[in-house]
Amino acid sequence: MGTGTIAADPARDESVDRSPTRKARFAGMLYLIVIVGGIFAEIGVRARLVVTGDAAATAQNIVSHAMLYRVGFAVEVFYLLCNVPINLLLYDLFGFIHRRAALLMLAFSFVGTAIEGVSLLAHYAPLVILGKATYLAAFTPQQLQAAAYSSLRLFEGGFAIALAFFGFFCITLGSLIARSTFFPRVIGWLLALQGSLYLINSFASFISPAAGARIFPFLAASSLGGEISFCLWLLVMGVNAPRWRAQVSSMVTA
């Protein structure tokens, strides 16, 4: 008292130290939802119901498993919603390293998320086209099946566009991680590699769908080292809070 100094509050300092770790683990939890949701929608729904090149069989599968198809659609909408807080948390964690790169990361992710969200309309369309509305009687069953299958192809195109933006998101986020001192840099390099493969896959599918199909297995394998390792590290380890604070302080005073 009377000295003009304020005693350090250990509880307050500990809370501040834990703050980046709490953000990292929350981001990891949301990222896990995105990964699991994406796997369910792609493997548990589309791969199960869509028969490549066969509009009639695909239509029959969707009609017979309409609830599964609807759940897959709802899951995709939900994990797209999760993308927004994930990116804001990642900006809080890594944005100070290079502000413009971090803003670019946000822009790529938000635009890609918006594109994927709009393309989901084409994913939902078969439920309408193959429904029982009276106005659909003006079309033959074959026409409705072809229209439903075409809408799914349009969704695939929209998803490939969104994936190109997500590729740049992975590259910019990976570069930020590689420049950090509080997160494993190898994960940043793996994310950048995965982002590059996303770009190659998307543009290959635009130019040559057959080539894109051949690239996809490598993309799936890379996700084990990139996105999944990033997600699990966030969820389990968080970030090195003292190093995070030290790098924040060095950037502020620089």
How would you characterize the overall build of this protein?
It contains nine helices and no strands. The protein has one domain (19-244). α2 (55-64) crosses α5, α4 runs antiparallel to α5 (141-178) and α7 (209-225) runs parallel beside α8 (227-236). The two termini are 35 Å apart. Residues 1-17 have low confidence and may be disordered. The chain is elongated. It is an all-alpha fold.
Q: How many DSSP-defined strands?
A: 0
**Percent of residues in helices:** over 70%
Averaged pLDDT: 88
Biggest sheet features? none
Ends apart, CA distance between termini: 35 Å
Question: How many helices in DSSP terms?
Answer: 9
The radius of gyration over CA amounts to 22 Å
Order of SSEs, N→C?
A: HHHHHHHHH
pLDDT < 50 runs, ≥5 residues: 1-17
Tell me the count of domains: 1
- As a percent range, the share of strand residues is under 5%
By secondary-structure content and strand pairing, the structural class works out as mainly alpha
C-alpha geometry: elongated
